[in-house]
Write a structure and sequence with these properties.
By secondary structure, the chain is α+β, with helices and mostly antiparallel strands. The protein is about 20% helix and about 25% strand.
């Protein structure tokens, strides 16, 4: 049995933009599955398939369709999502307050989850995100429309995985809707995949040929628009566990990214796990609880 369970969160939070979505990212380990006497993996806290910074990431391809507003992909429901209470932005509520309210909270996750990575302090420098990198010619205008960003802590439980979120508040709902629509394009998906793989390639604790793929994923019916992607990568067993034998099979790592728009707020929740994705009902429950207070 593998010593490590990669429990991490790319935290592209809810605002795929320049501030939040390259941040909450580190694949954390837990020793609950450790064999007696096994040693921790060398990179347990350092594997991080997250967004790359502008100077290191690949140049995104231009997609002609990204110049026009694209309606968000209709969400595919994989199960009955938990019923969420609608929360309406208060008149005149400051963008910072909206962003903080849209973050994953301890009450949103099931019992047994603990904080493995604290939320960044106020004033922390924003990280690069798919919005600036992957939405084409409109990136500059849409980035300028962001009024506030925020990122949550990362919560994890050994038998489930880890989850984190980030949020971005725009000047108006149409800007958030525009971003979500542009993220559905093939060019944006390919760019997002490239950002994650570039990050993997720069990780000194991983084999140089590690490369994953990002594809569409089912999304729960939450918010006023939702889009989901799943990133999967096969990690060499020795990259995950020091005690692995050279002929041990690769270890599957799965990260589900759920983008949700509600009003002028865009949230990104990331669900990570080793060997298998989150169970649908658990993911849907967390997503519904999070969106209820956005």
């Amino acid at each position: 049995m593998l010593h490590d369970r990669l429990m991490g969160v790319l935290c592209l939070g809810a605002a795929t933009l320049a501030a939040t979505w390259g941040g909450n990212t580190a694949i954390r380990h837990d020793a609950n599955e450790a064999a007696p006497g096994s040693r921790p993996a060398a990179h347990a806290d350092s594997i991080s398939p997250v967004l790359t910074t502008p100077e290191n990431g690949p140049t995104p391809a231009t997609d002609p369709s990204s110049t026009a507003t694209t309606a968000p992909v209709a969400p595919t429901t994989t199960g009955k999502a938990a019923k969420a209470t609608t929360t309406t932005a208060r008149p005149g509520e400051a963008p910072d307050a909206l962003a903080r309210r849209a973050l994953l909270a301890p009450t949103d996750v099931p019992a047994g989850f603990t904080v493995t990575i604290p939320a960044p302090p106020d004033g922390a420098a924003p990280a690069d995100s798919p919005v600036e990198r992957c939405v084409g010619p409109d990136a500059g205008r849409l980035t300028a429309a962001i009024g506030a960003r925020a990122r949550s802590a990362t919560f994890a439980r050994s038998d489930t995985g880890s989850v984190s979120s980030s949020a971005m508040v725009f000047d108006q709902p149409t800007s958030a809707e525009k971003v979500l629509g542009l993220l559905t394009t093939p060019a944006a998906r390919s760019c997002f995949e490239g950002l994650i793989n570039a990050r993997l390639a720069r990780n000194p604790h991983l084999s140089q040929d590690v490369h994953g793929a990002l594809g569409p994923a089912p999304s729960p019916s939450v918010g006023e628009g939702a889009l989901a992607y799943r990133f999967e990568v096969r990690l060499p067993a020795e990259d995950v566990d020091r005690n692995a034998a050279p002929n041990d099979p690769p270890v599957r790592y799965v990260a589900d990214f759920l983008f949700v728009r509600k009003g002028r707020t865009l949230v990104l929740a990331e669900f990570d796990n080793l060997r298998q994705p989150w169970v649908d009902t658990a993911l849907q429950g967390v997503a519904a609880a999070l969106v209820a207070h956005v």
